[in-house]
């Protein structure tokens, strides 16, 4: 697996969430070529090349974290398998370490949708480096370089990736909160 595989899988889940909220017809109308799950549409939304998205989907299907829908041949993440990998493996396979203070987009529990879940005393906020960001914090490399641009367009994806960073970076208490919240978002749909 590569780190962008997690980004692609979480984007697919975000699209499923949006499909439930908006309805499939509206989501298809907003997508390139009418197919929100096409590699062309995913390329436009994520800033990851079509070939890399295709390879990512193939790796995810081969590993059992995703499957191909039998009727539409669309990639479908296996939410439970992805959840288990994020909770138990992502911090070891794709470890995060904090860098220097930079301008960027808040991540982990500093992300706008998560900042009220947990209060940490005396720690800096974490950010994905992004020149147009309005926050200053300790820099964390995102799972893929285009993550800041991708999450600006998709608050579901932003929340999922911020939770992944909370798991990658957090202490035991923070990881527990992030795991519980991710479980509610990912598994109870």
Automatic annotation (TrEMBL):
Protein name: Uncharacterized protein
Organism, as annotated: Phyllobacterium phragmitis
